[in-house]
Amino acid sequence: MVTDLAEVFRLGTAKVKENLAFRRYLSAQHYADKQFQILASEVQQQVDCSACANCCRHTVVSVNKSEIENIAGHIGTTPEAVARLYTVPDPDAPALRILLNSGEGCVFLDGNLCMIYEARPKTCRNFPHVAVGTHSLGGRPSSLARWAALCPIIYNALERYKHLTGYYPHPPLSEFSRTAAVVNTRIGVMYKGDYDRLTKAVEGARALTEKAHRELGL
Ligand code: SF4
Ligand code: SF4
């Protein structure tokens, strides 16, 4: 499992198109979501969110009246004070409120920890929404592909589900091996008797194959 945040970002960013294609594939194949939820739940139990907190840095958190009241009760102030000090109007729906975010993270984030953990809103409780929910993975928003670069749970759950469903975004390794064998045979015929050029050509082909394997994560 990949948990290093820089590595998750690198791999998740490189796989945005692949993950969008996987979502379309699941939608077309009508895969049930239950298996993915079980698998995502297993991944979730193995990831230490206190070492990450990326969702608290990047998510827009909507809060309703009762959630504002909960927070107020938790920190010992009035709902009006919470609304005034810790929320702003939602730019997409000005009648609703969202938690203040400085650009570096949620107003209630302290280091990697939530200062109102017991009273955090439903959006935060359910994030990353992969182990719960009624929508099938194929029907989920495309933002899931973007989140795979930020959330180790989403990244690893998607990778395991690809494996489980036998999804191959690229030709499987055996097909690469067959192609490599054909290329090697042709190189051998082309440079027969000229061992220097043959060696160089084989080394070049090997470097290209290794580069392709690295890029494909094989
Ligand atoms: S982004 Fe994902 S792994 Fe990171 S803290 Fe949030 S839920 Fe946990
Ligand atoms: S309320 Fe807590 S859990 Fe929710 S985004 Fe803010 S810091 Fe994170």
Question: What is the element layout, followed by pairings?
Answer:
Blueprint: H1 5-14, H2 16-29, H3 34-46, H4 54-58, E1 62-63, H5 65-75, H6 79-86, E2 87-90, E3 93-99, E4 109-110, E5 113-114, H7 122-126, H8 143-147, H9 152-165, H10 173-190, H11 195-216
Antiparallel strand pairs: 1-3, 2-3, 4-5
Helix pairs in contact: 3-9, 5-6, 10-11
Question: TL;DR of this structure?
Answer:
The chain has helices spanning 5-14, 16-29, 34-46, 54-58, 65-75, 79-86, 122-126, 143-147, 152-165, 173-190, 195-216; strands at 62-63, 87-90, 93-99, 109-110, 113-114.
What distinguishing features does this structure have?
single chain, 218 residues, mainly alpha, 3 domains, three-stranded antiparallel beta sheet, two-stranded antiparallel ribbon, 11 helices, binds iron/sulfur cluster
Describe the structure.
The chain has eleven helices and five strands, in the order ααααβααββββααααα. The chain has 218 residues and is mostly helical. It folds into three domains: 5-52 and 129-164, no CATH class; 60-124, no CATH class; 173-216. A three-stranded antiparallel sheet has the order 1-3-2. Strands 4-5 form a two-stranded antiparallel ribbon. β4 and β5 form a beta hairpin. The protein is elongated. One iron/sulfur cluster binds at residues 47, 49, 52-55, 127-128, 150-153. One iron/sulfur cluster (SF4) binds at residues 56, 59, 61, 99, 106, 108-109, 114, 116, 120, 124.
